[in-house]
Specification:
The protein is of the alpha+beta class. It has helices at residues 20-25, 69-81, 97-109, 136-160, 163-192, 194-200, 204-234, 240-266, 269-291, 298-332; strands at 7-9, 13-15, 35-38, 44-47, 58-62, 86-90, 113-119, 122-127. 32% of the residues are buried.
Amino acid sequence: MELRKIQKTGGNTYIVSLPAKWVREQGLQKNTPVGVIPRADGTLLITTKPEGKVAAARKEFKVDDNVDENLLFRSLIAAYIVGFSEVKVYSERGLNSRIRRVVREFSSMVIGQEVTDEDPISITVKDLLDPLEMPFEKSIERMHIIVKSMIDDAELYLSVGDEATLEDIVARDNYVDRLNWLISRQSVMALKDPTFVEKMGVSSVTAVIYSFVGKHIERVGDHAVRIAKNLAKVRHRVNNRLSKEIKEALHSAERLFDGAIESLIKGDMSLANEVIESVGETHRRCEDLIHALQGGNAEDLLYIGNISDSIRRIGDYSADICESVLNLLVSEAVTCSLSGEEV
């Protein structure tokens, strides 16, 4: 670290000289504009990109005809999440239809990515999304609405057994995955580019915590799908008592999930703590669900056990969201006032 003394000129102008080596390395000259960004930790960031324009990050994947489809798809997702704005897949011998299909599936599975260039040996995908169109809060709220509807429809499926409802639950889970990947991508970009944080109106810590919350919501969606699929195996053999226990356990977990998201949106430490303290009630409901099947056959016990476990996990992930909320609120507050009645 170099120490520089502050100089004062005129009435209200303070000057700190820049290291000559850094100026030369950045290609700066007299009268070149630079950006100065005050940080929440009291530091100043000086950037040579005052307009917030960061050079496009480009990633290339060289493949052969026998490349594993799953490996290619996961690699493309990884490139998306870590913030590359342009991805090119190419082969010196030419791309076959199988590889092109994987790239197009990737483009359709994530938000903002479009195929912009294609020739016999390569295919290129670029990010066309304006981050300001999808702020963190909007993505989180959208994920909550979708996953909540999935839980509600899992209960509906128990009552009516409509196969279209089951298929729709699975389809909605794919969109939840897309939103989670977007949040993960934006949180990484927030760590890499301070101007991105400024544009999004959040701190880098907040961005990271939102990525944790997004992942927890995505897990809740996975368990809503798991509940529905296991109900499909056992629904016709569920009696009224067992149906009642399943619905009560689902309602208990859903209340925790709703409370967790509400605590995030409102910034309510008391509500977050209340949700964490209430997880035990959902666990007890899940135990009652297992007890209601005592004497049943082994296959039914397996499916109901899976349902009970997933409902329990929804409660646990809701508590995890609340832990993230507490972390966020404590990190942002200068002083946290805590009492027995109100925070």
